[in-house]
Design goal:
heterotetramer; A alpha/beta (583); B mainly alpha (448); C alpha+beta (277); D alpha+beta (260); B: 448 residues; C: 277 residues; alpha+beta; 3-stranded antiparallel β-sheet; 9 helices; 35% helix
Chain lengths: 583, 448, 277, 260
């Protein structure tokens, strides 16, 4: 028989209808959903072997032990490495997102390295008798700091300047039964967070500050004193002025002060933080042994305080910002510079610091790109040595700060970290704690090479406890208030110490919620007359900067809480007077 | 026979007016004998609405292309102006199904003179609502998932299914109205299809009624089931919270009112008699009686909610009304001023006979239902549930408002177009002739 | 959605919900298909004209749909249930059996100078059918119809051999802005076409002959009252929408009414008189 | 997905959060975002348009100094165990409760973005992607391979680190453990909390520390009277803190004080 077209059509039509009664076409329809499920522009996470790598967080001197979950070599998540005798496996919000830092929008990507080097050399050559070549190191007592000191010793009129931090004194929280803190964020990033939290059950915390900070809210007692009246309270408690006067000055009740004084009497040892006016009792503040350094390094420039330099005397200034630390207001630095074109080089990874002022900004590696050691934290009684090891490659354009300075001073470039490690190994004191296996071994039982390997694979050297360590004083108290610039501006500034710049993901904490105060944000009492989230201008005698307003009934009227970003620190310190006006 | 026939003879010669070619450009599309304004005038009327529509479409496009960040909605105010619009518009559009139900199922033949208009209104409202819904969701391309992976426990699924089905039904009901157009009906197949389809229209009316009952209800259920939102949560029968039934009644009540309102408005705008006043009064009466039932049911429901449902979830009812500006006044306005009052106005035959009362009654009824939908959507979301949470306020962005206006403009355009070219009010010609008869009689009385 | 799609369970909820959905779909589709098939059949059976007329008739104002026996005064009021096709109307059959239509003595009705010869049958759409000796039937516009349209601007007549049916379109007339179809009084096949000048428009060979074939048409005594009524409707229709009635009394209607009522919506008037809504 | 297997020993994963230990540092929020590839904020985002699967609220007792007290309350999806409000409302089964874990799951690929679930959630624990997700150049390298980033226009929320649970399952399988037994794992926030305020475990396992703590007299759940039976328990010795679990106090002092 021959098939007609009609029959073919019928067959085709019939089978088409038939197919509709099978799952096949419907299944296919379901699968078409996939294309609407893969919206364009969404990055696909790279896959690969998952493994753990260890390092130490170098975002602050706490240097918490870090366990990095890596895909291949790329860290995708950080967490505290457990069992650590100091950091106790804790990691703060900033540290948890540390692996984002290489990609932050404000990253310095390249800079005029040759020009800067030439300018520095030129400056050193031009340096007159009463002029100085200065290296400003925001985080002293690192191995790199030693390089700077040696370099500054090598150049004519070289000076090594750091913010006023005494690294030879340590706080022993474990000894204290009462901690009286004048605005020190004891439980909010001060010292080694893990250590503070671990020690917390051991002491009664009395927090004296104008605003109920996170620490104050966790404290056993919060004293709401007038901003800037910390010293008055201290004097009152020290009996240097009458309680009445202290009450007058601080805005507290007289009996409150009396009761407090009595408490400090009974409930010692007392650790006083944030004021050098009042004695700590017991051996809560002790002097700490220096982490050993090679003998040949001892020919180093002394640590100079910026204030001790005459104004208009700095010809060459090299600022190492690679390791965040205490920020000195630019105004204070500026007046030390010579009038006729001084050379200022900032070695920074973020454009938001001194890079805003220096004429040469050179890119440097950032955590976790670069190797470097972290000096012991203030609450670490024993000296320590731990490395922040590179987890991701550092961009080519970046320079190594210590090499730059060494080169400028004509020092040979050597592997200083390794030399220091060997020096420590030679001293053969203390123990080595390794993160992967959370074991500690006596250093003397470890070979030098193994020590070095261990340090690079995530390890920490902790000095032997030193029972004979003499009690000491925090001559320059941590985060002690700078003098208040007098003015008739209506508000009194209270700085909240947020670590900036951080990962963009930290927007969760301030932009996408109001948990913390974001960079360039101010918190005011609802009665201030501005709306929540309003754009405003923050103004002090030293200048103004744009800010966003957050209303918080927890802020007493007349106070303004500002997050301490470099831009703000250039304008004011805690206790300064300011005003916030509409943009 | 009103008057004896008199001979027809030449009236005094008049100059034939020079007629503008535009005037009768589209006259062959306009039903014979129906007086409509000139084409330019019509275009002039349509232009601003068209402009508004274009603007609205632009803002909607922004929301679709750039995403819903264009709106002022947020995680807490997950719904805004649009949901309010949807609920209200659909309630007002209920006239279509309810009139159809009364006419074709209960054979209330007087309503034949408004059914076409009702269908158009229904179509406008529902299609508008569906379009806005499509903009309102974050992933419109996945709309079909609701049909593909339906969660039959979700009120929203019920709504989606019913509304899309009912929209189809409305579209089909609209076809005969279009095909009756003078020009189109000259095409034999159109003529015949329209004729045959119209014979089966009661089937569609039945289906439409069924669907409408369910989705009007499930729109109410939408909020009534939110046990996490004690302000909206209601107990009910089986799977349906009380709001389910309240919405059905209120929609049925307000539908006729809205038709009454629009018809009156069209009559005012076009300066024509389109339906007999009795029809409007009938609509008023239906609306009034249902509204009365609704008010009663709503009051009982509210009392139960205040005294049982809400306290059981740990929320004292009074506290909802202590958040300014949503004081108890809103409750009074909803049930009293815009519920009981119009019900009485529409039920009293004396008042009903006065157009002023009739229309304002209808208007209040519509306002009341709109307010009810507003309360259920916006107030529900504004109230905090967590003790450490704040009371929220929300103002729609211009993109949202634009999209909202687009729906209004679209409605006016479609209705005006339909009114011009289709027979929305079959009685129109008849009434015109009647009017003339009356005139002539008057004239005769004057003569003898 | 379907048993093999994610999330489908054979439980009451799904079965009721989806069941309802599918049934609704089925009903809607079936309705559409039914309508489509019926109309297809109608088209194949050439019932377009009939349906067209029925649709028109349905659209006519109630007062135009009255039974001829109301006009003749036998009923108070009655709406014609058969769309003016009395051939299938029992009521009509009974009535004319009881008292057949009287044939007046004179051979033509004269109304305001318009002549309506009684040797023919009148359709309510103002056409007449005149049985010719040769068994064909001539179809033409009655005088009122002629005066309404005057001399048409254009005519489209069916080709000889075409089929016309009672109440279907006989031919279309264009006059000024009016475009109106004229209803055919009889069923049959067009043999010859005429025109205004020849007094008739179509010569038709009727499918049926004898009285029953013309039962639906007016004759004899019925004509006058019907015309009276028509004149009244005309007056009504002619009243310009906006201003007062312009009809003067007495005298003879002009040959071309159209020309003398420029303000009247002529299209509407013709639609009114020729029963085309 | 809902597994048909009936013999599984169902777990009921839950948390206890010691409010008294929370110092509001926000580590949990950061760790959560890192773990679950939640993008950083678009510049237009606010605390009302943001994406924070876990959000730490700052609450106070509404008193004035010296009686003023502040506490920090982390709120994430409470994983309601009874008539889970969001599951029943989702029109297209994009939300479901895994009977084997009790975790309320969200399928972003299925989500229509109608936000009905957000309106339904009394804890405001659901978040909508108002913007296309965007990471600074290069930062996408740091995305967690265990979790797919979501697209714009869908709702997302805490799923107790489903990715980690899945990994744990795979490890258990690799170790030859029976598939029917619940696995033990730790969500990112629990791991990250420096003060150890959050504990996670199987509430069905009476011997687990979490189950024990949940049974403590000082533990409470948010809006308990709604009878949604959350699996997130909060703990506090302070009465006023336990008070926050109740319905809001309209007009009450400190309403607008609450920040976070």
């Amino acid at each position: 028989m021959k098939t007609t077209r009609r029959e073919i059509m019928l067959f085709a039509g019939g089978s088409a209808v038939g197919v509709l009664f099978t799952p096949a076409p419907w299944r296919l329809l379901t699968d078409t959903a996939l294309w609407s499920e893969n919206w364009p522009g969404i990055p696909a996470p790279a896959r690969g072997e998952i493994r753990a790598r260890y390092t130490n967080c170098s975002l602050c001197t706490a240097g918490c032990a870090v366990r990095a979950r890596c895909v291949g070599d790329q860290p995708v998540a950080l967490s505290g490495a457990g069992g650590h005798p100091l950091s106790h496996g804790a990691l703060c919000a900033f540290g948890l997102a540390g692996h984002h830092l290489p990609y932050i929008p404000s990253r310095v990507k390249q800079g005029p390295v040759k020009e800067a080097a030439a300018a520095v050399a030129d400056g050193i050559a031009k340096c007159g008798p009463a002029e100085y070549v200065v290296t400003l190191d925001l985080r002293p007592a690192r191995t790199a700091s030693w390089t700077y000191r040696r370099a500054m010793a090598a150049v004519k009129n070289g000076r090594y300047v750091t913010p006023a931090v005494d690294s030879s004194v340590a706080v022993d929280l474990s000894k204290a039964r009462t901690v009286l803190s004048f605005g020190v964020p004891v439980l909010d990033g001060w010292g080694t967070p893990g250590n503070a939290i671990a020690a917390r059950p051991g002491f009664r915390l009395i927090q004296a500050e104008p605003i109920e900070s996170r620490t104050a809210s966790m404290a056993d007692q919060w004293l709401r004193i007038r901003p800037g009246s910390e010293d008055t309270l201290a004097q009152g408690l020290a009996g240097q002025i009458a309680h009445a006067a202290a009450a007058e000055g601080t805005g507290l009740a007289e009996r409150e002060i009396a009761a407090l004084a009595a408490q400090l009497e009974q409930n010692g040892p007392v650790l006083v933080l944030g004021s050098s006016r009042l004695e700590s009792t017991g051996r809560t503040i002790v002097s700490r042994r220096e982490t050993p350094v090679p003998a040949e390094w001892q020919k180093a420039a002394p640590v100079t305080d910026l204030a001790s330099l005459p104004d208009g005397s700095v010809r060459v200034l090299i600022i190492d910002e690679s390791a965040p630390g205490e920020y000195l207001p630019w105004k204070a630095i500026e007046k030390k510079l010579v009038a006729d074109n001084p050379v200022v080089v900032a070695l920074a990874w973020s454009r938001e610091g001194y890079g805003r002022h220096a004429q040469h900004v050179l890119p440097v590696g950032v955590y976790p790109e670069v190797a470097g050691d972290i000096p012991p934290a203030i609450d670490s009684v024993a000296a320590t040595f731990r490395l922040s090891v590179p987890l991701v490659p550092v961009p080519e354009a970046c320079v190594k700060p210590e090499e730059f300075v060494a080169a400028a001073a004509g020092l040979p470039v050597t592997d200083t970290l390794r030399e220091r490690a060997d020096a420590i190994h030679k001293a053969a004191r203390g123990t080595l704690f390794t993160y992967a296996d959370t074991k500690s071994v006596e250093l003397k039982d470890v070979k030098a090479d193994d020590f070095w390997k261990a340090l690079n694979a995530g390890g920490c050297w902790i000095d032997a406890p030193d029972d004979k360590a003499p009690a000491a004083r925090l001559t320059t108290a941590v985060a002690e208030l700078r003098p208040v610039e007098e003015s008739d501006l209506p508000l009194v500034v209270v700085l909240s110490h947020e670590l900036t710049p951080g990962s963009p993901i930290l927007s969760k904490l301030y932009q996408e919620s109001n948990l913390r105060l974001g960079p360039n944000c101010v918190a005011l009492h609802p009665s201030c007359g501005l709306e929540d989230g309003a754009k405003a201008v923050f103004e002090t005698l030293l200048g103004k900067c744009p800010v966003a307003v957050t209303l918080d009934a927890g802020i007493p009227p007349g106070l303004v809480q500002v997050s301490a970003s470099p831009a703000v620190l250039d304008l004011c310190a805690s206790g300064a007077r300011a005003k916030v006006g509409r943009a | 026979m009103a008057s004896p026939p008199r001979p027809v003879r030449a009236a005094p010669e008049r100059k034939t007016p020079v007629d503008n070619p535009l005037d009768n450009m589209d006259r062959h599309f306009i039903a014979r004998g129906a007086v409509r304004c000139s084409t330019p005038k019509f275009l002039l009327w349509m232009a601003p609405w068209a402009a508004l529509l274009v603007f609205g479409l632009y803002s909607a496009a922004l929301c679709l292309i750039k995403g819903l960040n264009q709106t002022n909605m947020d995680n807490r105010f997950a719904f805004g102006l649009w949901i309010f619009l949807d609920l209200t518009v659909i309630a007002l559009g209920a006239g279509a199904f309810f009139t159809g139900f009364l006419l074709y199922i209960l054979k209330l033949d007087e309503l034949r003179s408004v059914i076409n208009s009702a269908v158009v209104i229904g179509l406008v409202c529902y299609s508008g609502a569906v379009c806005v819904l499509a903009v309102d969701v974050g992933q419109p391309l996945r709309a079909w998932f609701t049909f593909w992976y339906p969660n039959v426990h979700s009120m929203l699924t019920e709504v989606t299914f019913c509304i899309s089905c009912y929209l189809t039904v409305l579209a089909i009901e609209y076809v005969p109205i279009v095909l009756r157009n003078r020009k189109l009906r000259q095409v034999p197949s159109f003529l015949v299809f329209e004729f045959e389809l119209h014979k089966l229209i009661y089937v569609l009316a039945g289906v439409g009624t069924f669907l409408s009952f369910f989705h009007q209800g499930s729109l109410g259920g939408l909020y009534g089931v939110l046990r996490g939102r004690p302000f909206a949560f209601r107990e009910g029968l089986a799977v349906w919270p009380s709001t389910f039934f309240l919405f059905i009644i209120s929609a049925a009540a307000v539908g006729p009112s809205f038709i009454l309102l629009t018809t009156w408005l069209v009559q005012k705008i076009t300066r024509k008699r389109l339906v007999r006043p009795e029809v409007l009064q009938l609509l008023g009466r239906i609306s009034g009686s249902l509204l009365a039932v609704y008010v009663l049911a709503k009051s009982i429901d509210t009392l139960i909610w205040i005294n049982r449902t809400s306290p059981e979830t740990g929320f004292q009812a009074w506290q909802y009304y202590s958040w300014k500006p949503f004081g108890t006044w809103i409750l009074v306005a909803e049930i009293g001023v815009c519920g009981l009052l119009p019900a009485l106005m529409l039920l009293a035959p004396k008042l009903r006979r006065r157009t002023g009362w009739l229309v304002s009654g209808a208007f209040l009824a519509c306002a009341g239902v709109a307010l009810n939908r507003f309360v259920l959507t916006v107030q529900t979301l504004a109230l905090p549930t967590l003790s450490f949470d704040r009371f929220l306020s929300y103002t729609p962005s211009w993109q949202e408002t634009g999209t909202f206006l687009a729906v209004v403009a679209y409605g006016v355009l479609v209705y005006s177009f339909s009114f011009r070219y289709f027979q929305l009010f079959p009685q129109e010609r008849e009434l015109k002739l009647e009017a003339r008869q009356v005139e002539e009689e008057r004239e005769l009385v004057g003569r003898y | 959605m379907l048993p093999w799609i994610y999330g489908f369970h054979w439980n009451a909820g799904h079965i009721i919900f989806l069941g309802a959905f599918y049934s609704v779909l089925t009903v809607v589709v079936v309705t559409l298909v039914a309508a489509a098939r019926r109309s297809r059949r109608a088209l194949l059976e050439h019932r377009v004209e009939e349906i067209g007329w029925h649709a028109d008739f349905h659209d006519l104002p109630a007062q135009d749909r009255v039974c001829r026996h109301v006009i003749s005064g036998e009923f108070q009021s009655r709406e014609c249930p058969h769309a003016f096709d009395c051939r299938e109307c029992e009521t009509h059959a009974k009535l004319i059996q009881r008292h057949p239509v009287a044939m007046p003595a004179e051979t033509e009705e004269d109304l305001f100078g318009m002549a309506f010869p009684l040797d023919r049958f009148y359709h309510r759409g103002h056409t007449w059918a005149h049985p010719e000796p040769d068994g064909t039937v001539t179809v033409g516009l009655d005088e009122l119809g002629q005066r309404l349209l005057g001399t048409p601007d254009a005519l489209d007549l069916p080709q000889p051999g075409a089929h016309v049916e009672a109440n279907g379109t006989a031919f279309r007339v264009h006059k000024r802005d009016a475009d109106v179809r004229v209803l055919s009084p009889v069923d049959g096949e067009v043999v010859e076409t005429g025109g205004a000048d020849r007094g008739w428009y179509l010569r038709v060979r009727p499918t049926a002959t004898g009285e029953p074939a013309f039962r639906h048409l007016l004759r004899g005594a019925e004509v006058r009252p019907w015309l009276m009524r028509e004149m009244e409707r005309l007056q009504l229709a002619l009243m310009a929408p906006d201003d007062a009635p312009t009809l003067a009394d007495g005298g003879v209607p002009v040959a071309d009414i159209a020309a003398s009522y420029p303000k009247a919506d002529w299209d509407a008037v013709c639609g009114e008189m020729f029963l085309e809504p | 997905m809902i597994s048909a297997n009936k013999q599984i020993r169902a777990a009921r994963y839950g948390m206890t959060i010691d409010v008294d230990r929370c110092n509001g540092c926000g580590a949990c929020m950061v760790a959560c975002s890192v773990e679950n590839n939640v993008p950083p904020a678009h510049e237009g985002a606010t605390d009302r348009k943001g994406l924070t699967w876990i959000r730490v609220y700052k609450v106070d007792n509404g008193e004035e100094y010296p009686n003023r007290r502040t506490a920090f309350v982390p709120v994430m999806c409470q994983h309601c165990g009874n008539e889970t409000p969001c599951v029943h409302v989702c029109p297209q089964q994009a939300v479901d409760v895994d009977p084997s874990t009790g975790v309320v799951g969200e399928m972003p690929q299925r989500c229509l973005g109608c936000r009905y679930c957000m309106a339904a959630c009394p804890y405001h624990a659901r978040y909508f992607n108002w913007w296309d997700p965007a990471w600074p150049a290069g930062m996408e390298k740091t995305l967690n391979p265990g979790v797919t980033p979501r697209m714009r226009g869908v709702v997302e929320k805490c799923n107790l680190c489903h990715g980690r649970w899945h990994a744990a399952k795979e490890q258990a399988a690799a170790a030859g453990k029976p598939d029917t037994e619940p696995v033990s794992y730790v969500p990112a926030c629990v791991e990250a909390c420096p003060t150890g305020a959050i504990h996670f475990g199987d509430l069905n396992d009476a011997s687990s520390a979490t189950a024990k703590e949940a049974a403590e007299p000082d533990s409470f759940r948010l809006l308990e009277k709604l009878n949604t039976q959350p699996k997130i328990y909060y703990r506090s010795k302070k009465d006023w803190v336990r008070g926050i679990a109740a319905a809001p106090r309209p007009g009450g002092a400190g309403k607008e004080n609450s920040r976070g």
